[in-house]
Each structure stands twice: as structure tokens, then as C-alpha cells.
Amino acid sequence: MQLIMHTGVHYTEQDRLIKSLLRNKNAFQDWGVAIPGPGSYRALVRDTLNAMNRAPAAEGAREVLLDVILDETKADRVVLSDPNFFRTAGTAVQGGELYPAAAIRMKYMADLFPNDDLEIFLGVRNPATLLPILYGVAVDKSDAAFWGGRTAFDIRWSETISAIRQAAPHIPITFWCNEDLPLIWSQIIREIAGVEYHEKITGGFDLLASIMSKEGMQRLRAYLNGHPDMSEMQKRRVIAAFLDKFALEDKIEEELDMPGWTEELVDDLTEQYDEDVLAIQRMPGVTMIAP
């Protein structure tokens, strides 16, 4: 079985994405793809992974989990989505590392499903905008617990993803940048579900509709309907142009609330993030969805 794990991360539109996937649940089922409701498995999988910190999973745990998740649904591909696969937002940064528990938890998933084809899908986000949010919700904000003697420049996604690859090298990882989401939303839905580009889906504009004016969305739909033969790259250029003109500023602007952070520091962190994304792209077994 193909088991797809959409692992978030937190604050990358993860809940909106699973809702868009669920809007296609019946259509995807016809193609052998199951999109179970998150309420049917999140707590169960989380409890199982937490228990594996103490002892290996019991024999037959895979079958028990799948019985609950699928509830007699027949499928060749199952999509699970939980931003807490790697732990909660409150413990996302510990000792100056992003999701330090990610590697061991994905190893546990590999142990639970040893003969299945597992894949990880996740969005990453500029630490310059993400770290202030994670600091704000951190369970322990002390310098020792959160920063661990490191600085914001030491916190890189490549470190986390490399650790996952080492712990579970046979699990491929597909990632994207949260900043690119409006342009690649429909492709991500198709990639996660494993359906072809030409297949029609519902919800391809769910994110755009939340950040663009009603007039802009109407004009965009009319333009795309009037140019049905555009390539995917042409569509993305059109979407970018409409966003530039019709984006709702209060939906796309972010206020950073981090003591001592300057505009120069944010710019430097953003430049490092761009370099880090390039480093991740070069990792074996890692694929990037980009505009």
C-alpha cells in the first residue's frame, strides 16, 4: 500500500490543505485513493508513536491501525495529514532545532509499516516568519530550552530533513515552500493524491480565494476559462499577475513580534533560507514542488 504522510508543518496552511483534499474524497476514491477524515486517526497514530518511545509496537499494530483508518474502505493509496506528526507546535523548536523528534518519529512510522510504500509531503516556511510564531506558542520559552545556545541563523530546515533521511532513508520526501503556495496549490493536491495533471479536481483555488479580492477571483476565473489551452507555467504567471493586483494586503502581510529582531536580521535570515532550500533540493530522495 502507498501511505502518504502530509506532515505539515505547522502554520503552512496544513488544515486548509487537508480540507481541500477532503473535498475530492469521493472522486479520489474512484481512483483507489483514500482520504480519511483526520478525526479517525490523528489521536490513534499520535498515541501509537508516543508509546513506541517506550517499547516497539505490538505485532499486528499495522493491521489494527489500517482497520481503524480505512473503516472497510478499499484503497491502494492512503493519505494521512497531521501537523503534529513531528510533535506539537509548542515543542517544534527545542535546543535550537526545528522538530528534533521528526527523525525518530518517521523511523517509528517506517517500523509500523515495514512493507508499505511510505512518502512524506511537507511545506517549509521561512524561519524569519516562523520562529516568532513558534516562540510565541512554545511550551518552554527559556533560552536553554528554546535556543539551546544557538541563534536563529543556526536553525535550518536542511538539518531536520537530513536527519529524517538518515533515520528512514527509504522514505522519499516531497517538499515545497509555504511562500509559493498560492501558485502551486492545485499541483500539491494532485501530487499528494497521486493523480495526473489533466484530472479535474475541486478546491484548486481554495487558498487563492482566501487572499484575493472577490473581484480579482472573478476576473481570474474568467481569464482562465477564456484561455483553456494555457500550460501550467503560463497559468502560474497569470495567477502571480492577478495576485500582484488583487491580493488582500491584510491577508498576506505579516507582523513579526520577536524581541530584538531588526529588518536587517530578517533580510539576512531570508537570504539564508533561500540558500537552505537549494541545499535541500540537492539531497538524494528529496523532491521540491516549485512554481
Summarize this structure as a short list of keywords or feature phrases.
291 residues, six-stranded parallel beta sheet, two-stranded antiparallel sheet, 11% strand
Structure description:
The protein has 291 residues and is α/β, with parallel strands linked by helices. It has 14 helices and eight strands. It has helices at residues 14-23, 25-30, 42-51, 61-70, 102-112, 127-137, 143-146, 157-167, 181-193, 206-211, 214-226, 232-246, 249-252, 263-281, and strands at 2-6, 33-34, 77-81, 93-94, 97-98, 117-124, 173-177, 286-288. It has a six-stranded parallel β-sheet, sandwiched between helices. Strand 4 (93-94) and strand 5 (97-98) form a beta hairpin. Helix 11 (214-226) runs antiparallel to helix 12. The longest helix is centred in the last third of the chain and has 19 residues, at 263-281. The radius of gyration is 20 Å and the shape is globular. The model has no long low-confidence stretch (mean pLDDT 94).
Provide a brief overview of the structure.
It contains 14 helices and 8 strands. The chain is an alpha/beta fold and 291 residues long.
Largest sheet: 6 strands, parallel
- First-last Cα distance: 30 Å
Order of helices and strands: EHHEHHEEEHEHHHEHHHHHHE
What structural category arises from helix and sheet content? Answer: alpha/beta
Radius of gyration: 20 Å
- Helix coverage percent of residues? 40-55%
Q: Count of DSSP E strands? A: 8
Mean pLDDT: 94
What is the tally of helical segments? 14
Strand order across the biggest sheet? 2-3-1-6-7-8
Strand content is: 5-15%
Uncertain stretches of 5 or more adjacent residues: none
Note the overall shape: globular
